[in-house]
Design goal:
Low-confidence stretches: none
Helix content: 25-40%
Strand content: 15-25%
CATH topology: Rossmann fold
Shape: globular
Bound molecules: flavin mononucleotide
Largest sheet: 6 strands, mixed
Number of domains: 1
Radius of gyration: 17 Å
Mean pLDDT: 97
Number of strands: 8
């Protein structure tokens, strides 16, 4: 089965490890392969504030009634959503920190998860509003095996994507790096071996 390349890809990274980041390295390479003509990049580790009372207040306030701070908070949330809407393919780096997704990636999802925008509730239950998109998950860890009972990151990210109506295209895992020093290289090989449609 081949994988289609795209002109509308959003790469989302969130590592706090800068140049040493395995998830950034792998996800960036995957984005380069899937979108050879270029892609958008959102680094969730830079400039994203955690959702808090001020953020909630901003969202609950009509645009014309927001103060400057609320307006800035709402504007960023809108920008993050616009970036997703502009993409048909997402590559999401998911570093595992303390058995969960990096807080930076959690915050990115938190900013997007707005009723009426990312999802809605109907009599039939929750309905994702960001359909027509696919996402690749690039998961990295030192000890936590992807898909194991202590991996609270990958299933959570899959759930959030499904909740938004986004299809999971695949998972690339450089897990258990502390036990397998070739883990990142093997994941990179997987990325390089993805059969792209001509
Ligand atoms: C604050 C912190 C917490 C971590 N917690 C875990 C953990 O709970 N389980 C695990 O397997 N690895 C853990 N690690 C190791 C990272 O998952 C590993 O370094 C991985 O490569 C992170 O992705 P990154 O390189 O893109 O930052 C942790 C690393 C940091 C910096």
């Amino acid at each position: 089965m081949t994988v289609q390349t795209t002109e509308n890809l959003l790469l989302v990274t969130g590592s706090i490890r800068g140049e040493d980041s395995a998830s950034t390295r792998l996800a960036t390479r995957l984005a380069e392969r899937l979108a050879p003509g270029g892609y958008a990049h959102r680094d969730a580790a830079s400039g994203l504030e955690m959702v808090d009372g001020e953020w909630l207040g901003a969202m609950a306030t009509a645009p014309e009634a927001r103060d400057a701070r609320q307006a800035a908070r709402a504007e960023l949330a809108e920008t993050l959503m616009d970036e997703v809407k502009a993409a048909d393919t997402l590559v999401i780096a998911v570093p595992i920190y303390n058995f969960s997704p990096a807080a930076q990636i959690k915050t990115w999802f938190d900013q997007l998860a707005r009723a009426g925008v990312a999802f809605k509730y109907s009599e039939a239950g929750p309905e994702g509003l960001l359909t027509g998109r696919k996402a690749w998950i690039v998961m990295t860890s030192n000890g936590t095996e992807e898909g194991s009972a202590i991996d609270f990151a990958t299933p959570w990210v899959k759930h959030m994507l499904g909740f938004f109506g986004i299809e999971v295209a695949g998972v690339i895992a450089a897990d258990r790096q502390a036990f397998d020093e070739s883990s990142v290289d093997k994941a990179l090989e997987q990325v390089e071996a993805l059969p792209l449609a001509a």
